[in-house]
Each structure stands twice: as C-alpha cells, then as structure tokens.
Specification:
The protein is mostly helical. It contains 1 helix and no strands. The chain has a domain of 27 residues. Helices cover 50% and strands 0% of the residues. The longest helix is centred in the last third of the chain and has 53 residues. This is SpdD-like protein.
C-alpha cells in the first residue's frame, strides 16, 4: 500500500579527473641531529606588579562582589519562601471554604 521511494544515486555530470597515483618515498638513514633547546620568547609587554595598595583594592572589590551576590541570592530565597507560604495559606483558606460549603448542603 505505502511503499517508500528509494532514492537513486545520480551519475556525476561534467569532467572528472582520475585519481592521482601515489608513489612511495624512500627513507635514507642518516645521522640524527640533536634538537635545539627551545628559547622562551621575549615578552613585549611588562609583567604585572601588584603593589600593596593594588592588592588591598582587589581584596576589597572581591569582598564587595561576594557580599552583593550573597544579598541577591538570599533575597531570592526569601521571595520564594514568602510565595510558598502565601500559596499554602490560600490553599488552607480554599479548603476551609469548600468544606464549609459542603457541610451546608
């Protein structure tokens, strides 16, 4: 009833080049040369030097980042906790209203 069509591979059009023949190369044993030792390249920029004032500024900035990030995460956790508590209170109130409505009937 439903037969899939199997695609046929089209023949290449245009000019095609035959594959090139690969000729093996011969290796002649010779004396081994010692490898030169690598030399460290000279740096074009000066090295970073930390003064006590710069180190103190970096420590202060890191501390400020940690404190701000902690305050943001704690506030998000508090918002989730307050939302969960309010949803729980709403669920209790709705259950109470539905139970009292069922008792009247």
């Amino acid at each position: 009833m439903l037969r899939p069509k199997i695609p046929t591979m089209p023949q290449p059009t245009g000019l095609t080049t035959p594959p090139a023949a690969v000729e093996p190369t011969t290796i002649t044993p010779g004396t081994s040369m010692p490898l030169p030792t690598p030399v460290a390249p000279a740096s074009s920029r000066p090295a970073v030097q930390l003064t006590p004032g710069t180190a103190l500024a970096l420590v202060g900035a890191g501390t400020a980042v940690v404190l701000v990030l902690g305050a943001v995460l704690v506030s998000m956790l508090l918002a989730v906790a307050i939302t969960g508590a309010s949803v729980a209170v709403c669920a209790v109130v709705l259950r109470s209203l539905l139970a009292s409505d069922a008792k009247r009937r």
